[in-house]
């Protein structure tokens, strides 16, 4: 069954007809040609498809597009602004926080989400007590564990995120 | 000796050239290529292990709006291959659970998936064997093992050495079935136009993919173009096309002019693209009272597929690592009704060095000397396997230098001697090694375009290794220009031929061709060429391989913590010191080595593909249940190198670094876990249950 | 995935009426469990009723000192809620130990509680499974059962419930507010889940069409609490064993406590025997071990999960040691 929806993708309103079965990820990639988010597992287990929906990081593979009608979606392609790439993206390059690059768009979206979550005072599993979290290595590792990287760029990813959050 | 480049760009710590594109998500991987009205393929996979397809009812699928084609063994084009893995849909036979038995092509992924689910396949089944030991046919000795090594070796008299030894080790080590699982699933996008085939293939070798696909479809390779500028990891599984590529090309052939896209599901990644087989190694060591090895024996039994033999060269590292006059090795296969295994990062050395280096640690404990001292004591003068001199071998330096930097000698060697906040803490060490290969059949073109810019072309692949960066650095030095004067082109069969990004041979193989072309270019055109001046050159023969044993080395150190109550195991520190020749780009090289060590950690602690013997397939085929190391599992991992060029190998003096990082890691961690707890784990992965009492 | 219709609900009563009237309809909220199951062919509804817009994401104080949590409250919001962090840290710890940041941003409170039990064979539509296809058999009993149940299982099903939140909610004595076609009812979370018995198809006591609209917590239990999750990865993995524990001490004696195991059974496992053994006792190492052993006396292990018995015992002892001020803490020697 088909549905007409509108998504605001990387700052641009996009009308698209989807199947009710179409995930947000497939709507972006196959129907809108927005291929920055990647399909690594299609079951929420790798994080390669992470995008920001209304400012929050989510896996776009476990979200039905029809249920996101009207949402604002930011992919790695949309993180850049007139000044160039997002500081997280620049820090990823500087810290060689990637190799094959396939998980990277999801990693950077997730990292932007993490920085906002830490700024908002959200705790993680490694936050001690009810204090405001600090952006330690342990915090970054825990918070970024939903984004698998098979090339093993984790140390660079942690360094990049700490650099931006410092 | 080869004529060495004067290092200027090479050795420089420059950022990954493709980084800016990748962080934006703008690097076009195989599935991301813009196409007009593509079609989507979804396969139907066997739900029985062994037998025959008795019938296929595709009527419901064909009735769905948007379904363009249902492909079965009854209507599939005939293929010209005898390769049991690639003979897709050529007969009703089913050889393993999950084999492709039909495929649907439709206008959307949703329709393709639903239609594939609506294809009704019935089977006649036969008894099957999916684990070693359950196969009545017994074990099989392959003609040779992967990379062309002999199956068995026998020097001296191992049994006599063991009988006469002051100290012995005789243990079995088991490594799990593990899956490459690059984050990018294997992907094929195929379009036939007239008699020409264009394929975007997630591949570590566009020329290898072309050769295989041309062969399978009986085509002149010149009519096949394979393009793949960016690869989302592969670690061996993308070294050669698999069934998914064949079925996609087949479907596209039946839908001429249309592009057919297929990306495997993650579940299919556990059965259709190869994996490292489960294996058991019996390791025997014999030593004199001072720890001098008198005998080394490794007997490997591994699982392989009945339809296509793959024999991992697991015992090969033990043939050359340590001096011992009596050495015997063997490889045997259990040929089973299971998916076809293939290369996974450091085939042979990764499992082989787990067993050997754990056994060496066990021997050190029995002899009562430091495991580093034991290794140093058994350092060979010449390669024990071939009798050739080593082109260079700095293992002892790696051990000593690494030990100092890690703080190895801080440890109390007694097991279970250190406890911090309820965690038992231990240190472990292991050696690493990997051959320094350079492949024949590489060529490059250097062309002067204009304005001090040079275009350098070679059909190489970058699966995350840093080839985009390192090859530009090599070209710059070979031409004597800055790196930013180089426009590199890779990843297309329209470029000069190149070998696989595999065997840690890419940089050496492609770099040598580029240097040859650049030097020929300067010889012909000098320093002031005209636009479009161009030279094509083949890489010269690898003469060093005839006279020398060519290998890289390393020493890895692990700090491990095991929770006293729960057995949870963590690796707060991994340190690797490598003998990797000259390093072309420290930044991308460090990432490669750390990445290899990370995969080694993952192999040590997490990865375990469990065969369900009743159902005959992997019981945990997704990333939620087949764990690979997540960010929180990886703490401090560092890699350094000695930085001693090996001038015999290639004009860069480099050794390959893509695979050595995974070798020895699991042993270092297992040895550290033993030091922490007193529990010797000989079966990977090292999970918490192994420490529980 | 078979085609389905999608409707966005604007009020809870009509959503419930719609789903209750259609045996092939299902509620959709965060989607992290359901969409996964749609793709796997484990769930095949013909109609999805999206309850995301029901404005059920309020966290409010109750007059009795408790807390009412709207069913649609996202896991990450609930975990970060200042009142939850201050007064129900067990809940926050449990939520944060589950899934990943991205999933917690989408998953809702009720959706988390109502996620299906976890078993690889249930998720594999090509395998037999009594939960998915009644009567087809349970391959886990003789197959890959590392993650499976050691308590309360049946020959028909040995799956475990994966929700960390549920274990914490049981320990907190929470109650689900459930709207059905015939009105509202209250179901203690401790009684929400079923053991598989001879009908593993149902994970909970809820009838088709019933919708959890809120979860209510009583006033804080007091004392100290801890959610400890043991798993095969350091993060982003399901529990092998988890312990939700809350302990109130008085004069060196356990005044009251709540102990719940996750990862051991088809439902969160209230360790009532262990609680009874310790209530009113001094928490010595011997007493803690005896309490854990009492709870695990009826454990029945399978080929691959025997380690869960010592793991559950040791984890429970470890947590209780910590919460009772380290009565028998082993000493560091380095």
TrEMBL record, chain A:
CDD domains for this protein: fer2 (cd00207)
| InterPro entries per record | 2Fe-2S-bd, 2Fe-2S-bd_dom_sf, 2Fe-2S_ferredoxin-like_sf, 2Fe-2S_ferredoxin-type, 2Fe2S_fd_BS, Aldehyde_Oxdr_Iron-Sulfur, Beta-grasp_dom_sf
What are the alphabetically sorted keywords of the record? 2Fe-2S, Iron, Iron-sulfur, Metal-binding, Oxidoreductase
Q: Per the record's keyword annotation, is Transcription included, yes or no?
A: no
Protein's pathway: Alkaloid degradation; nicotine degradation
Give the Gene Ontology MF terms in alphabetical order.
Answer: 2 iron, 2 sulfur cluster binding; metal ion binding; oxidoreductase activity, acting on the aldehyde or oxo group of donors
Query: Per the database record, which ranges form the 2Fe-2S ferredoxin-type domain?
Result: 3-79
**Iron-sulfur recorded as keyword:** yes
* Protein name per UniProt: Periplasmic aromatic aldehyde oxidoreductase, iron-sulfur subunit YagT
TrEMBL record, chain B:
Q: Which GO terms describe its molecular function?
A: iron ion binding; oxidoreductase activity
Q: Enumerate the UniProt keywords alphabetically.
A: Molybdenum, Oxidoreductase
Q: Which Pfam families match?
A: Ald_Xan_dh_C (PF01315), MoCoBD_1 (PF02738), MoCoBD_2 (PF20256)
- InterPro entries in UniProt: Ald_Oxase/Xan_DH_a/b (IPR000674), Ald_Oxase/Xan_DH_a/b_sf (IPR036856), Ald_Oxase/xanthine_DH-like (IPR016208), AldOxase/xan_DH_MoCoBD1 (IPR008274), AldOxase/xan_DH_MoCoBD2 (IPR046867), AldOxase/xan_DH_Mopterin-bd_sf (IPR037165)
Domain Aldehyde oxidase/xanthine dehydrogenase a/b hammerhead, chain residue ranges per copy: 24-127
Designated name of the protein: Periplasmic aromatic aldehyde oxidoreductase, molybdenum binding subunit YagR
Automatic annotation (TrEMBL), chain C:
Q: Print the keywords alphabetically.
A: Oxidoreductase
- Does Oxidoreductase appear among the keywords? yes
Q: Which Gene3D superfamilies match?
A: 3.30.465.10, CO dehydrogenase flavoprotein, C-terminal domain, Uridine Diphospho-n-acetylenolpyruvylglucosamine Reductase, domain 2
Task: State the Gene Ontology terms under molecular function.
Answer: FAD binding; oxidoreductase activity
Q: Which SUPFAM superfamilies match?
A: CO dehydrogenase flavoprotein C-terminal domain-like, FAD-binding/transporter-associated domain-like
Record domain FAD-binding PCMH-type: where = 1-222
Is Cell inner membrane among the key words of this record? no
- InterPro entries for this protein: CO_DH_flav_C, CO_DH_flav_C_dom_sf, Diverse_Substr_Oxidored, FAD-bd_PCMH, FAD-bd_PCMH-like_sf, FAD-bd_PCMH_sub1, FAD-bd_PCMH_sub2, Mopterin_DH_FAD-bd
What Pfam families does the database record attribute to this sequence? CO_deh_flav_C, FAD_binding_5
The name of this protein is Periplasmic aromatic aldehyde oxidoreductase, FAD binding subunit YagS
């Amino acid at each position: 069954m088909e549905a007409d929806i509108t998504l605001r993708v990387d700052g641009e309103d996009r009308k698209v007809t989807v199947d009710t079965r179409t995930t947000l990820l497939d709507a972006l990639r196959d129907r809108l040609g927005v291929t920055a988010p990647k399909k690594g597992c299609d079951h929420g287990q790798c994080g390669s498809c992470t995008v920001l929906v209304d400012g929050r990081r989510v896996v776009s593979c476990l979200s039905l597009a029809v249920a996101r009608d009207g949402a604002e979606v930011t992919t790695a392609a949309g993180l850049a602004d007139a000044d160039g790439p997002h500081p997280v993206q620049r820090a990823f390059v500087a810290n060689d926080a990637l190799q094959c690059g396939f998980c990277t768009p999801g990693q950077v979206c997730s990292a932007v989400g993490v920085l906002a979550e830490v700024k908002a005072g959200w705790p993680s599993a490694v936050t001690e007590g009810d204090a405001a979290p600090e952006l330690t290595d342990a915090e970054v590792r825990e918070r970024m564990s939903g984004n698998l990287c098979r090339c093993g760029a984790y140390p660079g990813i942690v360094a990049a995120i700490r650099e931006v959050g410092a | 000796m080869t004529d060495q480049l004067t290092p200027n760009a090479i050795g420089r710590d420059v950022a990954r050239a493709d980084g800016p594109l990748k962080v934006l998500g703008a690097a076009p991987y195989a599935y991301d290529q813009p196409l007009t009205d593509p079609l989507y393929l979804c396969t139907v996979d066997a739900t029985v292990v062994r037998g025959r397809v008795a019938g296929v009812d595709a009527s419901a699928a064909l009735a769905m709006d948007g379904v363009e084609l249902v492909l079965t063994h009854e209507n599939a084009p005939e293929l010209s291959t005898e390769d049991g893995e690639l003979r897709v849909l050529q007969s009703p036979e089913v050889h393993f659970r999950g084999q492709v038995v039909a495929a649907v092509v439709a206008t959307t992924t949703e329709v393709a998936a639903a239609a594939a689910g609506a294809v009704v396949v019935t089977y006649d089944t036969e008894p099957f064997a999916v684990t070693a030991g359950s196969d009545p046919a017994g074990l099989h000795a392959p003609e040779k093992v992967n990379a062309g090594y002999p199956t068995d070796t026998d020097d001296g008299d191992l049994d006599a050495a063991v009988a006469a030894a002051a100290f012995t080790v005789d243990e079995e080590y088991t490594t799990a079935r593990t899956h490459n699982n690059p984050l990018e699933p294997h992907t094929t996008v195929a379009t036939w136009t007239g008699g020409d085939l264009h394929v975007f293939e997630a591949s570590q070798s566009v020329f290898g993919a072309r050769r295989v696909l041309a062969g399978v479809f009986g085509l002149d390779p010149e009519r096949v173009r394979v393009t793949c500028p960016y690869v989302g990891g592969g670690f061996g599984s993308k070294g050669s096309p698999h069934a998914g590529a064949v079925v996609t090309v087949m479907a596209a052939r039946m839908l001429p002019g249309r592009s057919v896209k297929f990306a495997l599901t993650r579940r299919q990644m556990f059965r259709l693209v190869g994996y490292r087989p489960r294996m058991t190694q019996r390791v025997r060591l014999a030593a004199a009272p001072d720890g001098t090895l008198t005998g080394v024996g490794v007997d490997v039994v591994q699982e392989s597929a009945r339809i296509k033999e793959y024999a991992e060269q697991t015992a090969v590292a033990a043939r050359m690592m340590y001096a011992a006059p009596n050495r015997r090795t063997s490889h045997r296969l259990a040929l089973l009704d299971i998916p076809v295994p293939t290369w996974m990062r450091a085939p042979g050395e990764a499992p082989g060095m787990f067993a050997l280096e754990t056994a060496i640690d066990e021997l050190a404990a029995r002899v009562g000397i430091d495991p580093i001292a034991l290794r140093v004591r058994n350092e060979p003068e010449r390669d024990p396997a071939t009798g050739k001199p080593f082109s260079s071998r700095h293992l002892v330096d790696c051990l000593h230098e690494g030990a100092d930097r890690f703080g190895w000698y801080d440890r109390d060697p007694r097991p279970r001697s250190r406890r911090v906040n309820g965690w038992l803490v231990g240190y472990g060490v292991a050696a690493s090694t990997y051959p320094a290969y350079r492949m024949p059949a590489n060529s490059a073109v250097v062309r002067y375009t204009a304005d001090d810019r040079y275009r350098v072309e070679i059909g190489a692949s970058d699966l995350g290794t840093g080839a985009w960066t390192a090859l530009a650095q090599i070209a710059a030095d070979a031409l004597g220009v800055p790196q930013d004067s180089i426009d590199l082109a890779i990843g297309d069969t329209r470029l000069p031929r190149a070998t696989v990004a595999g065997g840690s041979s890419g940089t050496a193989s492609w770099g040598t061709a580029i240097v040859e072309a650049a030097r020929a270019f300067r010889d012909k055109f000098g320093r002031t060429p005209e636009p479009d001046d161009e030279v094509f050159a083949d890489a010269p023969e690898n003469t060093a391989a005839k006279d020398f044993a060519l290998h890289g080395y390393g020493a890895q150190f692990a700090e491990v913590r095991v929770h006293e109550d729960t057995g949870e195991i963590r690796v707060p520190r991994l340190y690797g010191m490598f003998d990797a020749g000259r390093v072309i780009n420290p930044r991308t090289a460090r990432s490669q080595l750390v990445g290899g060590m990370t995969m080694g950690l993952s192999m040590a602690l997490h990865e375990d593909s469990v065969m369900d013997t009743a159902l005959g397939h992997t019981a945990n085929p997704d990333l939620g249940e087949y764990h690979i190391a997540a960010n929180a599992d990886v703490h401090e991992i560092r890699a350094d190198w000695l930085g001693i060029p090996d001038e015999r190998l290639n004009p860069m003096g480099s050794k390959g670094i893509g695979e050595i990082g995974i070798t020895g890691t699991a042993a270092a961690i297992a040895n550290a876990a033993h030091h922490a707890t007193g529990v010797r784990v000989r079966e990977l992965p090292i999970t918490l249950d192994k420490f529980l009492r | 995935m078979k085609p389905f219709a999608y409707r966005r609900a604007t009020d809870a009563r009509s959503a419930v009426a719609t789903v209750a009237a259609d045996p092939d309809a299902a509620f959709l909220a965060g989607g992290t469990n359901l969409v996964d199951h749609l793709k796997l062919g484990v769930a095949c509804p013909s109609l999805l009723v999206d309850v995301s817009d029901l404005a059920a994401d309020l966290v409010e104080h109750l007059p009795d000192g408790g807390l009412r949590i709207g069913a649609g409250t996202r896991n990450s919001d609930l975990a970060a809620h200042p009142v939850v962090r201050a007064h129900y840290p067990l809940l926050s710890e449990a939520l944060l130990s589950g899934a990943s940041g991205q999933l917690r941003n989408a998953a809702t409170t009720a959706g988390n509680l109502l996620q299906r039990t976890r078993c690889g064979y249930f998720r594999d539509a090509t395998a037999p499974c009594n939960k998915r296809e009644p009567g087809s058999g349970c391959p886990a009993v003789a197959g890959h059962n590392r993650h499976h149940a050691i308590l309360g299982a049946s020959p028909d099903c040995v799956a475990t419930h994966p929700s960390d939140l549920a274990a914490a909610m049981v320990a907190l004595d929470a109650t689900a507010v459930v709207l059905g076609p015939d009105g509202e009812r209250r179901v203690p979370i401790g009684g929400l889940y079923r053991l598989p018995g001879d009908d593993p198809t149902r994970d909970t006591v809820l009838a088709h069409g019933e919708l959890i609209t809120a979860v209510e917590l009583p006033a804080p239990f007091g004392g100290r609490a801890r959610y400890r999750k043991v798993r095969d990865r350091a993060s982003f993995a399901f529990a092998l064993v988890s312990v939700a524990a809350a302990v109130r001490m008085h004069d060196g004696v356990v005044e009251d406590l709540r102990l719940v195991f996750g990862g051991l059974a088809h439902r969160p496992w209230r360790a009532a025997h262990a609680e009874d053994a310790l209530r009113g006792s001094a928490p010595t190492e011997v007493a803690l071990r005896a309490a854990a052993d009492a709870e695990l006396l009826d454990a029945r292990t399978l080929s691959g999960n025997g380690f869960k018995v010592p793991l559950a015992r040791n984890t429970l002892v470890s947590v209780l040691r910590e919460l009772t001020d380290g009565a028998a803490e082993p000493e560091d020697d380095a």
